[in-house]
Each structure stands twice: as C-alpha cells, then as structure tokens.
Amino acid sequence: MVTKKGIMLRFLTGLLLALLVFGFASCVGAKWFRLTSQASTNFADLAAEIQEVAKSPLPQVRPFVFIQDAETYVYFINDRTRRNTMWLNDVTYSLPSPAECEKQTCLCLCTEFGDNEDSELRECQKLICKSLPRVEFSPDSEIIAYRSEDGPRRQTVRIIKCVANTPYCRGKDGDISVIFNWWDDQKAYEAIK
User: Fold this and answer.
1) What is the rounded CA–CA span in Å between residue 177 and residue 141?
2) Where are the alpha helices (DSSP H) in 33-80?
3) Helix count (H) and strand count (E) of the chain?
4) What is the pLDDT of residue 30?
5) Strand runs (DSSP E) across 59-115, as ranges?
6) What is the spatial order of strands in the sheet that 154-161 belongs to?
7) Pairwise CA distance, residues 192 & 140, whole Å
8) In 11, 72, 79, 108, which residue has its Cα 20 to 30 A from 19's Cα atom?
9) What is the spatial distance between Cα 3 and Cα 74, in angstroms, rounded to a whole number?
10) Model-level pTM?
C-alpha cells in the first residue's frame, strides 16, 4: 500500500532529478551554442549604429547598449589592425580577416575559439563580420573587447565621431572611436584619453 508520504517523496525525488538534468543540459547547450540570437542581432545593430554616426555631418557621442555573450570577443579590422594577432592582458588573440574585410574596415565578433593547451592563445574559429565602408577608426581605439564568464553581458558603448581635442580621439576629424565602458574602467584606453 502506497502512503501519501511515499507519493510525495517519490514526486519530490523525481522533480529534483528533472531539475538537475535540465540544469546540466542547459550548461552543455550554452557551451555548444555560444551566440544567442539576441547578441547576434545586437552586434548587427552596433555595426549599423557606427555607420549612422559616421554619416553624421556633426561630431557627436552616441551611447549604445551592447549585449555580448560569454567567451566571445569583438575586434576591429582596418589598415592598422589587419594582422593575424593582437595582444591584450597577457593573452594573444587571433584576428582572422575574411575576404570582405581585406580592403575595407570591418567590425568582427569571434563567437567560437579553439581550446588550446596554451591558455594564453585564443584562436578564432567562427566569426561574424560586418563591413563598415567609409568608416575610419581613430588610432589606438581598436581594442579587443573580450567577455569572460564574469564580465558584464550588457555594457554601454560610446560611439564617438571625432573632432580636434576630443577625448578618445587621436586621428583626424571624422574618425570614429568605439569605447566599451567596461574596458574603459579596466584602463584599456589610457593611451588615447
């Protein structure tokens, strides 16, 4: 004969087991499918916003809320940064340059990098790039914006159309600086303040 306590115990045990299996499956799934659709759409919106600021005839600073999934990094491709690697905080990042970025400026998001025995090397294996025709980035503003598990998922980004003596601008009038506030707090832009 099954008692009420036995039924309740069996129910609670099954519920606990189901929650554990669901939690484990969610963690595994998050590692396999690193880029969420929200972060992918937001990355495309950031590229569009940079182009809008670049088209503006007037200098401006436009804020943008950037959503970035964990274990991804954003980088810029232009004539100064079109190389294979960049170094930041004791880590070397590979910066692949797809064909559409060989002769123009691009903003790229590395969504997956290989597990390397050397933890100081992140080799990008899967990326999304948006070309930014006629956009020139201000020198030394092109950093790697890497997000680890403990970094913020959302952060404010300032898109600056430069004019003489503007903070975060070292190039000519009309250049664009894209300043990730979390990285600014980490002093990544000290050279151009």
Assistant:
1) 6
2) 37-55
3) 3, 10
4) 45
5) 60-67, 72-77, 85-88, 91-94, 106-113
6) 60-67, 154-161, 176-180
7) 7
8) 72
9) 59
10) 0.78
Contacts with 48 (C-beta within 8 Å, 6 or more apart), sequence order? none
Cβ–Cβ < 8 Å for 39, 68: yes
Half-sphere exposure of 95 (CA within 13 A, CB side): 26
- Helix locations, the chain, DSSP H: 4-32, 37-55, 181-185
**Residue 126 tokens, joined:** 């899967």
Rounded CA-CA distance 82/10 in Å is 61
3-state SS class at 192 = helix
Q: Domain limits of the chain?
A: 1-32, 37-192
Rounded to 5°, the CA angle 174-179-181 comes to 155
